[in-house]
Q: What sequence folds into this?
């Protein structure tokens, strides 16, 4: 069905629903690359005007990717909870925006609504929101998950400690883990991207991280971010796997590009949960996503990159993950060209994930060929902190020496704790305290060389196998 | 896994080392920016400036122009062609990878005129592409090509093509336009903070637009910071050239074929570490 709108004497036409969604999206290079961006700034506002008047039920009646062609669409449609949707079922997208912003829509109402929302609905409403709206609404969403730590509690911000090494040297990895622990990072997960996709390497790293965790009785979870099929092999081999990781995207074809489908993800989730290693909860999956993934696999079905990204969250939520994060600036300037686009995308992704009921975090990051720098990352991390982001990725000195991109540093975490007053997960916070690593007012200490906590950790890192 | 893991522990247990020495020992195990210290919560000034310098160098490498004359002057005497992708400038190139894979309007004629008049095809063509680091190309392309030419006596080698605003797949229309059986694209890899001048080399048999990445073989990390030397890289290139032309393919099939040949005790001349 075609849509049209008359604005200021001009008529704007859009051939179908996905064209309206694409044109309503704030400008980004990936939609330009795909030939989906609005033809002008005025056409963008026209598309938003049309979108505002569409009933939310439009998205239940009209799929942006055909039901017959795509198992992600089938998952979205078949798992839609009509009863949960009822409180907003009479609203237009514009009316839904106002409803979300209203003070009556509190954490309990939003949590109850989540199963009634589809990715297309939340993507649509995000396109009618400014950054502050995305922050205000996301901040009201409360999504709590748990394994050995509890993620998503009010006033808390967790971190993934990412100790990557260009040749997976366990001692080098251990040195980075130690560095991060000394800043109080790692309560979401200590998670390494291995340079090699070899199972033996992954087993060695899994074992080393687990030994380190047990030696210091650190209440956190570890993860080697390797393909789910590798993870299942590693579990069969008896290695101590906490979380199983996978990159996911918003269409069946894009997921096939990642070598997964929903059945395989279900099998991997069962394998992870069967180990029963969580102490305070059983959320055992970890997913990463990012705008542009579907387009780069030529699997976007003519849908704009932000809407396809939101569909990835429908995939993630089917498997009750502990953690989900968008790797927002990693994919490069052909998808998000500069700090402005990366910032907007990070807040959109966080908003959409939270509204759909996910424990949403973010890798606040950029590559060297994007028009972005650490100042842009400072801005986005502070905005995400305000938005109640569940966790952020941190690496030594912002420099990932294996993946060759820049993320947040452990220092940035300390700044967020001071500026926003956000604290570590309670289990991990208690551990930091036991280790003598916090001051009475809750700051992470700058440790002296001979401080027992430092000596113990350094010695262990020196001996990591 | 590095053998260093079994060498004497970097930090002697219980040793009463000063802070700086302890971190210095751990730093030998990783290039990561560990043990940077703190100014309040923030990064101290010195490591902040170090980081900014590394980022500036990486960005300079991304935005530098390909100095064709300098590279040509470093090459042995051999005909040279220049082509440009359909991306007119760096800004467009970075945002439109599709344009970096297509030739501009003038290139077809340039290539047609250079194709062999005798109807025979070239065995291979070297294509020097700026990619994401013209600096990598400036530093390593000429030495690698020189070392390759020394190893590839007797092959019909097309004019060396200098390609600006180019992605790897620009080698497909170039190779097809010249009628080359194999394309060898030397291209600047995306700069990181630690290495901003790393060269990658991609080989594609029967190049033509639409070739998939799985149909190419890649030799990456040619650089002077612990990467492959030009000689090492040329050894691998020459091996791939001979095998690709003999077997009539590149990509996953060639790599698997090589592994099988090795398992069956077949020959794998001068191919270190594949």
A:
């Amino acid at each position: 069905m075609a849509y049209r709108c008359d604005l200021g004497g001009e008529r704007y036409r859009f051939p179908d629903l996905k064209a309206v969604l694409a044109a309503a999206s704030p400008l980004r290079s990936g939609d330009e690359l795909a030939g989906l961006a609005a033809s002008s700034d005025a056409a963008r506002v026209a598309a938003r005007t049309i979108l505002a008047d569409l009933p939310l039920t439009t998205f239940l009646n009209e799929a942006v990717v055909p039901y017959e062609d795509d198992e992600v669409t089938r998952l979205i449609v078949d798992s839609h909870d009509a009863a949960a949707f009822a409180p907003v079922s009479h609203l237009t997208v514009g009316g839904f925006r106002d409803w979300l912003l209203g003070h009556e829509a509190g954490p309990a109402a939003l949590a109850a609504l989540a199963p009634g929302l589809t990715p297309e609905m939340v993507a649509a409403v995000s396109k009618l929101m400014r950054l502050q709206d995305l922050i205000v609404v996301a901040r009201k969403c409360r999504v709590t998950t748990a394994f050995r730590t509890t993620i998503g509690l009010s006033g808390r911000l967790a971190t993934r400690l990412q100790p990557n090494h260009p040749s997976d040297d366990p001692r080098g990895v251990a040195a980075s883990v130690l560095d991060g622990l000394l800043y109080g990072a790692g309560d979401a997960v200590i998670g390494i991207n291995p340079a090699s996709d070899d199972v033996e390497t992954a087993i060695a790293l899994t074992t080393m991280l687990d030994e380190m965790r047990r030696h210091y009785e650190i209440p956190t979870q570890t993860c080697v971010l390797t393909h789910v099929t590798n993870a299942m092999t590693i579990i069969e081999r008896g290695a101590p796997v906490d979380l199983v990781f996978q990159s996911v995207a918003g269409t069946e074809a894009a997921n096939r590009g990642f070598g997964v489908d929903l059945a395989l993800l279900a099998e991997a989730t069962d394998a992870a949960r069967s180990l029963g290693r969580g102490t305070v909860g059983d959320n055992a999956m970890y997913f990463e996503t990012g705008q542009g993934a579907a387009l780069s696999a030529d699997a976007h079905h003519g849908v704009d990159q932000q809407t396809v990204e939101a569909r990835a969250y429908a995939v993630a939520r089917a498997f009750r993950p502990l953690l989900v994060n968008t790797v927002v600036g990693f994919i490069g300037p052909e998808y998000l060209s500069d700090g402005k686009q990366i910032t907007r995308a990070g807040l959109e992704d966080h908003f959409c994930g939270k509204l759909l009921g996910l424990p949403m975090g973010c890798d606040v990051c950029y590559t060297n060929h994007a028009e972005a720098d650490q100042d842009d990352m400072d801005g986005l991390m502070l905005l995400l902190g305000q938005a109640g982001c569940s966790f952020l990725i941190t690496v030594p000195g912002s420099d990932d020496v294996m993946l060759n991109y820049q993320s947040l540093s452990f220092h940035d975490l300390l700044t967020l704790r001071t500026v926003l007053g956000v604290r570590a997960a309670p289990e991990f916070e208690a551990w930091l305290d036991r280790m003598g690593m916090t001051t009475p007012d809750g700051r992470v200490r700058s440790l002296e060389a001979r401080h027992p906590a430092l000596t113990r950790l350094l010695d262990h890192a020196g001996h990591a196998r | 896994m590095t053998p260093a893991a079994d060498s004497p522990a970097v930090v002697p247990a219980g040793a009463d080392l000063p802070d700086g020495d302890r971190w210095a020992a751990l730093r030998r195990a990783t290039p990561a920016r560990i043990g940077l210290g703190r100014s309040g919560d923030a990064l101290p000034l010195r490591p902040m400036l170090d980081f900014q310098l590394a980022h500036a160098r990486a960005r300079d490498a991304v935005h530098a122009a390909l100095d064709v004359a300098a590279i040509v002057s470093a090459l042995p005497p051999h005909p040279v062609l220049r082509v440009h992708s359909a991306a007119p400038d760096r800004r467009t190139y970075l945002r439109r990878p599709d344009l970096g894979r297509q030739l501009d309007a003038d290139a077809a004629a340039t290539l047609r005129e250079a194709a062999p008049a005798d109807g025979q095809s070239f065995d291979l063509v070297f294509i020097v592409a700026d990619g994401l680091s013209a600096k990598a190309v400036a530093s390593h392309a000429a030495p690698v090509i020189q070392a390759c030419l020394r190893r590839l006596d007797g092959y019909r080698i097309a004019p060396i093509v200098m390609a600006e605003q180019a992605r790897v797949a620009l080698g497909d229309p170039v190779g097809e336009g010249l009628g080359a059986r194999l394309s060898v694209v030397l291209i600047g890899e995306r700069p990181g903070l630690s290495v901003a001048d790393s060269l990658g080399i991609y080989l594609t048999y029967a190049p033509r637009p639409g070739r998939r990445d799985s149909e190419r073989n890649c030799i990456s990390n040619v650089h002077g910071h612990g990467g492959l030397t030009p000689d090492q890289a040329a050894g691998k290139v020459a091996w791939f050239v001979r095998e690709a032309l003999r077997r009539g393919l590149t990509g996953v099939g060639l790599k698997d074929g090589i592994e099988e040949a090795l398992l069956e005790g077949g020959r794998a001349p001068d191919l270190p570490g594949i």
About this structure: The CA atoms of residues 203 and 240 of chain B lie 8 Å apart. The radius of gyration of chain B is 22 Å.
